[in-house]
Design brief:
elongated; mainly alpha
Length: about 170
């Protein structure tokens, strides 16, 4: 029981620290807060929605499920990084952001769909294990990956189009 309590405390400390580390690295790479914030918001939405679904469906929060945010946060940001990076490389002054977003997604929708499908399938395969906490963990990480992918296709382009950003 003491181990379980300590794990919950560690997850409460290290999940936000992992988010902060990812945020700092992205800020170093992109050098523009306005390009980093959409990816972080997308990850936050994916984590909160997934954990809400976990608890809302009557599952208990246990050691395995407390690790979902740590796994989901970087996975949720991966596709967003590809999209933001490509957007950052392609967008030029005088070009409509919507046109840039369309070009970016025309090139990346296949690859990000494939990586999302394989990642979600890998975690969903844990549903076949006889250990209930591992089953719950796998299913909800897979659901979270799907939520992040849906956000990458819907929320991310909307945020990039509306962001107060000037191309260089």
């Amino acid at each position: 029981e003491a181990f379980g309590d300590q794990m919950f405390i560690q997850m409460a400390v290290f999940a936000p620290l992992a988010g902060l580390a990812i945020f700092a690295l992205m800020l170093v790479f992109f050098r523009r807060l306005v390009l980093v914030v959409p990816a972080m918001l997308l990850a936050l939405v994916a984590v909160i929605t997934t954990m809400g679904l976990l608890i809302g469906t009557g599952n208990t929060l246990h050691i395995m499920s407390s690790m979902i945010p740590i796994f989901l946060m970087p996975i949720a940001i991966l596709d967003a990084i590809h999209v933001i990076s490509e957007f950052f490389d392609r967008h030029r002054p005088g070009i409509d952001r919507r046109a840039t977003i369309r070009a970016v997604y025309a090139e990346l929708v296949g690859p990000i769909g494939s990586t999302t499908a394989t990642t979600a399938t890998g975690f969903a395969a844990l549903a076949l294990t006889p250990i209930p906490p591992v089953r719950v963990f796998g299913v909800f990480v897979a659901i979270g990956v799907a939520i992040a992918w849906a956000g990458t296709l819907t929320l991310l382009p909307a945020m990039l189009v509306r962001a107060p950003y000037r191309a260089v």
